[in-house]
Amino acid sequence: MRAVLQRVSRARVSVSGAVLGEIGPGLAILVCAMAGDDTRTAEALAAKVAKLRIFRDEDGRMNRSVRDAGGAALVVSQFTLAADTSRGNRPGFSAAAPPEEGEMLYLAFAAALQAAGVPVATGRFGAEMEVEIVNDGPVTIWLDSEAG
Question: 2-144 is classed in which CATH architecture?
């Protein structure tokens, strides 16, 4: 799985003008299931995200996790993270998991993050969404379960 995490002061996702999910301080997480991923991959990535120390402590150092900071997560499916731009100018997305698997793994990731103690709001898998993010820092981290 691939994910882009942004530390945010607030974020929300809407479909056709209706807000589906909204958080205050925490993480906006764009997540993509890749071909060959399984629920163990989703759970492992969620565990890493829950423990990743990218929030400021009392000394201003990035030393706290989203849980430690009392933050929440807005989890949005983003199959374009699977983009292959190695050939020409039009990205290919064949490395992404098929839609049925992708949705199941997206939901498994969100559920595992919630189970790890992080309040979770979500978008709608496969929908045309508007995501509003106020990046705090800015802090943006890219994770790939294949990269370790």
Answer: 3-Layer(bba) Sandwich (3.50)
Residues 57 and 128: their CA atoms lie apart, in Å, by 36
For the annotated catalytic residues, the residue numbers are: 78-80
Look at the pTM and tell me if it is higher than 0.90.
yes
Mean pLDDT taken over the chain: 96
